[in-house]
Amino acid sequence: xxxxxxxxxxxxxxxxxxxxxxxxxxxxxxxxxxxxxxxxxxxxxxxxxxxxxxxxxxxxxxxxxxxxxxxxxxxxxxxxxxxxxxxxxxxxxxxxxxxxxxxxxxxxxxxxxxxxxxxxxxxxxxxxxxxxxxxxxxxxxxxxxxxxxxxxxxxxxxxxxxxxxxxxxxxxxxxxxxxxxxxxxxxxxxxxxxxxxxxxxxxxxxxxxxxxxxxxxxxxxxxxxxxxxxxxxxxxxxxxxxxxxxxxxxxxxxxxxxxxxxxxxxxxxxxxxxxxxxxxxxxxxxxxxxxxxxxxxxxxxxxxxxxxxxxxxxxxxxxxxxxxxxxxxxxxxxxxxxxxxxxxxxxx
Length: 348
Ligand code: 5AD
Ligand code: SF4
Description:
Elements: H1 3-14, H2 21-29, H3 33-51, E1 54-57, E2 59-64, H4 90-103, E3 107-112, H5 120-133, E4 138-142, H6 148-157, E5 161-163, H7 171-177, H8 184-196, E6 200-207, H9 214-227, E7 231-236, H10 253-266, H11 276-281, H12 285-290, E8 296-297, H13 324-336, E9 340-342
Parallel strand pairs: 1-8, 1-9, 2-3, 3-4, 4-5, 5-6, 6-7
Helix pairs in contact: 2-9, 3-10, 5-6
Iron/sulfur cluster (SF4) binds at residues 67, 69, 71, 74, 76-77, 113-114, 144, 312.
């Protein structure tokens, strides 16, 4: 393939139309290092066209490490008796929001396992309380699969955004990563409902999850083309002790970076975070993601005492932001690669 061929591929990726299967396949299997560099640079060009050199920040509050699900890859799965469990109260969460607001955050992300105690009503209540105190700030929920009624209640309470990764589009692959009580179909039902309700919706998948093939990844990319989410989160799979996949290999950082650049080209305006999983596996993970087109970072606003308990995988990196000082460190890190924090809400 010649230089002009890769330019044609960029044209196809950025045309807005669905990418051909053969093109995805080529992109995922056959690129040279030079071609990958070219795609990354193009992705950065597209990101800068829409977002300039600003990186949005979202304050992440991990509200519960209890989960009724048993996903085979996750350290918080219910049958992991070694997992350390905690749940935050409404008051705890509001305190985190206050700290975040003081540091200049305009988005709070409430993320947690599917904790039966933090039921639909409990979630709707805390959203309402946050929106009452911080009417101008965006609230993002990431609390898993719920009923249509629950999602409607969350929306009515004022939630703006919802993150729910589809994990894998392929039904059989899904069934090897989750127990039979969960289904790819229900995940999709949730995602389409969330979009219909007007949530800015986020989806995504792990890269290099156990058993993942190129065909699975293409199905994931095609699913993203179908759903067209406003936010797309991807990160490498990382083995987690005391789970069935504890001895599996981690996903590839390079592959994840490549896919970030493909996503930026295919979804030019999407909000794409430099994920914690990437920074966990690679010292320069966030910088590399940004230099492949990512435009969001999610520093941790959880109370310091619970952070290490939210252990979805081994050695999870914690990019705190409890102090102005730590945000300054992030600012310095971004400045070093020609970027800066954008404190705005950063809606789609
Ligand atoms: N490695 C990487 N990512 C993981 N997640 C869960 N377990 C792991 C793991 N072992 C991701 C899933 C989930 C998100 C909250 O964290 O994609 O949606
Ligand atoms: Fe629960 Fe999410 Fe972990 Fe699955 S990935 S066990 S739903 S916290």
